[in-house]
Amino acid sequence: MTVPPPTLEIDLLTIFPGLFDSFLSESFxxxxxxRGLARIEAHNLRNWTSDRHRxxxxxxxxxxxxxxxxxxxxVDGIEELAGPKGASRSARVxxxxxxxxxxxxxxxxxxxxxxxxxxxxxRYEGVDQRVVDLAIDEEVSIGDYVLSxxxxxxxxxxxxxxxxxxGLLGNAESVVKESFTQDILEGPQYTRPPEFRGQSVPAExxxxxxxxxxxWRHDKAIERTALRRPDLLRRxxxxxxxxxxxxxxxxxxx
Length: 254
Ligand code: SAM
Prior knowledge:
α4 (105-111) links the parallel β5 and β6. The chain is α/β, with parallel strands linked by helices. The chain folds into 2 domains: 8-162, 3-Layer(aba) Sandwich (Alpha/beta knot), CATH 3.40.1280; 177-253, Trp Operon Repressor, Chain A, CATH 1.10.1270.20. 41% of the residues lie in helices and 17% in strands. It contains 10 helices and 9 strands. A 5-stranded parallel beta sheet has the order 2-1-6-5-7, sandwiched between helices. A two-stranded antiparallel ribbon has the order 3-4. A two-stranded antiparallel sheet has the order 8-9. The chain starts with 7 loop residues before the first strand and ends with a helix. It has helices spanning 21-25, 27-34, 71-82, 105-111, 129-135, 151-162, 172-177, 203-206, 210-228, 230-253; strands at 8-14, 38-44, 57-58, 68-69, 92-102, 116-121, 138-141, 195-196, 199-200. Bound molecules: S-adenosylmethionine. S-adenosylmethionine binds next to β5.
């Protein structure tokens, strides 16, 4: 019997591959790898150096604090793992960077269509601009703050990607209903016992009436989003308005 290729293949370039050991072997990521649904490997960037000290950094031209990641090991490593930049490249190459496009659930859903990835983890003051220009397809940020390295940002993106692998998580519906998947937050959730320290589970959830439960969940999701993230509701309304504007325009042209 031939074994099907993994749904998702990811190579990581990092100077700290050991940071990924437990991340890649525990929980559902470990499960995805064991079941052959994902192949994820962390490669030591120093394998692509050629000097005795396996140097990956150098001081910035023009002065300034800190060091920068040198272009040669990064570009050589990326090209060995993904091929040269261009249409025929076998993988999409992402540099995690605070200057990148903000990571969203939408980005993750779109990413789910691409089977092969290379993630580049920056360190020091970042990477030489020629690495970005010559070898990176896209830059992704996990938020408006600065960490010391790209390993944790890469883990964040990878965790978001792996959990979308079809058939991996038991309840596919739970992935669809989660916060952001429908551009709103998920409402409050409860498990047993029905009463805990004087706090009761809302009667609607105990009613056994599917329609009542669905309506309650929907209302609470909207209420919570309006309170905590009104920007998401505004965006959804704007998008709906834009869509109906386009439809009206099309109708007039026909
Ligand atoms: N000097 C850089 C700047 O101002 O944009 C920051 C470099 S940061 C100290 C070192 C590395 O950590 C970056 O190259 C990137 O790979 C990673 N990093 C830090 N914060 C990040 C974030 N919010 N999202 C994604 N990657 C981040």
